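Hey, sorry to bother you again with one of my protein questions. I've been puzzling over a protein and I'd love to understand its fold better. Take your time with it, there's no hurry, and the full record follows here:
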Amino acid sequence: MALRKDQSILLLAGLASLVLWLFPFFRPFLLPLVYYNTHIHELCHALAAVATGGEVLRILVFANGSGVTSVLGGSPWLLASSGYVGSAIVGGMLIAGSRTEKGARRTLWIAAGFLLFSLLFFVRGETIGVVSAISWIAVLFACGQWLKQGKVVFAAQFLGIQQCITSAHAFLVLLQLTAFTNQHNDAVLLQDETGIPALASSIVWLLMSAAIVFWAVRHAWSTKPK
């Protein structure tokens, strides 16, 4: 599949941001993307809890980019798995749904709507969590409203790729934590509840997320949209 010029630029931009992750000096500049991914990650936990009969107490997003969702009840397996896999699904939907200008606007507005829903019902406590949610809602809505033609498609797909890259980085951190430490995380939570080894869960989630992203890119770029 030959890439168009805009697709090549998009991949290069994604690769450049991935390289920046390797240098600690640049990571603070990527924090806004981390906040966005954390909001989506925690919202996926919250929705999984509600869908399986649980109750969401609150979502907290911290200044360092980490987050936590406090819930009562719900399916432990879905709760633990929903954060990473759900984030990849949302990133994949942004990519796959942005083949056209109309689709890109719709996906950006839907993403803004999800964050608004999370802010109204779940996000509490930490000021940075509230401020970052409001900021991303405004950015997503503005991009969907005012960017023209190819620019809105590029913005939506770039955000989708960035979310996938940020999720991939979070996966690497998760793999490191589960392999070499006993620090609490989603995979350890699943291990405590089901007995499934944390490292095995992390690898399965990574493979599932990679498959989702691969499908999304192929779907979005399979043919030139009319």
